[in-house]
């Protein structure tokens, strides 16, 4: 009994000591131990496992291609676990001279290789990199076109392109607001359902485009999973924004604030989608896959005009917002296309593009969740013949207008 009492006393002392230690210190101690264990594994853990057998694992990929007169510049990314050294380079089966900063590219590292090759505009290029271990990495350029220099005129062109395909179409679509203010409440619910169809189509389109881009990436920092990471960040971020706006509205109790909040969320979702669209347009232009013709601009404008309708639909039958608020909604939805065109044309990266497209998907999904209650009927149903017809009509409009866009 005395031994048992002593053990209980010691346990009580230990609990008393732990109670006096701050909570942050209790959390910091295991973190420090984990960090020390990981450092030990990195420094001495490999030596205890013996020499690794088998050839090195080499995974080198071309992250970016820049074409200048008489030279080809490749940015290489090592997505494998072992360092990679480029020994020889061939272009269209012909050996070429090249210059590089370092001999080896470490894990997750990047290196620029400049090839001395007199390429001809419009011709295809097949670049073959031979590593020191004898492995080959191939990179194909379908049509060789000089990469635009990022000067003032270049950025001016990208800004104009973003205005044409983003700002102007959204502003034109917002002109439907007076019309929506005159129609019956039943039709407003149908238009709200059509808005969900429009946004749903945009989300699916962004997902398909994002998976295609992610599969073309080096994979060093992730692939398709970046879409889901971006979607989660945007979804929960917009949930937090919605809660913040809702609390402010409840305190202000302003008439029409709820409708404007919903329109703001729609504009943010569309704006994030247009950011990804601008990325794709700018990148396609930079590598010569996009011809800036009048028909293409017309196609994008027609396709994106419906986005303006989606923004103003929640404002129908409510207190009319000021012109400044409407202009702000239009810029939030359309202006990101300009930023996307800048980034896509000057510093395109597949991983970043996939992440941004995922952010657009998450934002759109959260906006759809917000819109569904707005077109419920008196029985509380979200899906009934009129709403289903509206959703299908929204999908059909974007599908048909998308047919005239050929990138």
UniProtKB/TrEMBL annotation:
Domain of life: Bacteria
Membrane-traversing stretches: 21-44, 154-180, 187-208, 220-241, 253-273, 279-302, 323-348, 354-375, 382-405
Entry annotated with the keyword Disulfide bond: no
Key words, A-Z: Membrane, Transmembrane, Transmembrane helix
Official protein name in the record: Zinc transporter, ZIP family
């Amino acid at each position: 009994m005395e031994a048992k009492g002593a053990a209980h006393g010691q346990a009580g002392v230990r609990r008393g000591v732990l109670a006096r230690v701050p909570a942050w210190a209790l959390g910091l101690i295991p973190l420090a131990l984990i960090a020390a264990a990981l450092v030990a594994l990195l420094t001495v853990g490999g030596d205890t496992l013996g020499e690794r057998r088998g050839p090195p694992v080499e995974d080198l990929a071309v992250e970016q291609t820049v074409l200048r007169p008489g030279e080809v510049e490749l940015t290489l990314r090592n997505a494998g676990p072992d360092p990679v050294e480029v020994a020889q380079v061939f272009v269209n089966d012909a050996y070429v001279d090249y210059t590089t900063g370092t001999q080896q590219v470490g894990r997750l590292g990047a290196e620029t290789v400049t090839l001395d090759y007199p390429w001809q505009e419009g011709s295809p290029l097949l670049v073959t990199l031979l590593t020191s271990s004898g492995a080959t990495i191939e990179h194909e350029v379908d049509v060789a076109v000089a990469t635009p220099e990022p000067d003032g005129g270049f950025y001016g062109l990208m800004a104009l392109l973003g205005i044409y395909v983003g700002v102007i179409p959204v502003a034109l679509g917002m002109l439907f607001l007076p019309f929506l203010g005159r129609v019956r409440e039943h039709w407003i619910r149908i238009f709200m359902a059509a808005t969900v169809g429009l946004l749903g189509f945009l989300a699916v389109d962004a997902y398909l485009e994002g998976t295609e881009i992610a599969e073309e990436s080096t994979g060093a920092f992730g692939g398709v999973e970046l879409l889901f990471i971006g979607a989660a960040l945007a979804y929960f971020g917009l949930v937090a924004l919605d809660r913040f706006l809702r609390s402010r509205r409840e305190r202000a109790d302003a008439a029409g604030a709820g409708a404007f909040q919903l329109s703001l969320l729609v504009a943010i979702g569309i704006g994030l989608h247009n950011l990804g669209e601008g990325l794709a347009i700018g990148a396609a232009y930079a590598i010569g896959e996009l011809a800036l013709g009048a028909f293409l601009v017309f196609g994008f404008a027609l396709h994106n005009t419906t986005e303006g309708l989606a923004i103003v639909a929640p404002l129908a039958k409510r207190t009319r917002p000021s012109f400044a608020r409407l202009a702000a909604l239009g810029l939030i939805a359309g202006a990101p296309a300009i930023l996307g065109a800048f980034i896509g044309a000057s510093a395109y990266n597949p991983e970043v593009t996939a992440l941004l497209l995922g952010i657009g998907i998450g934002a759109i999904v959260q906006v759809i969740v917000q819109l569904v209650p707005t077109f419920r009927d008196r029985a509380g149903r979200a899906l009934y013949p009129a709403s289903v017809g509206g959703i299908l009509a929204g999908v059909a409009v974007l599908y048909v207008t998308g047919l005239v866009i050929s990138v």
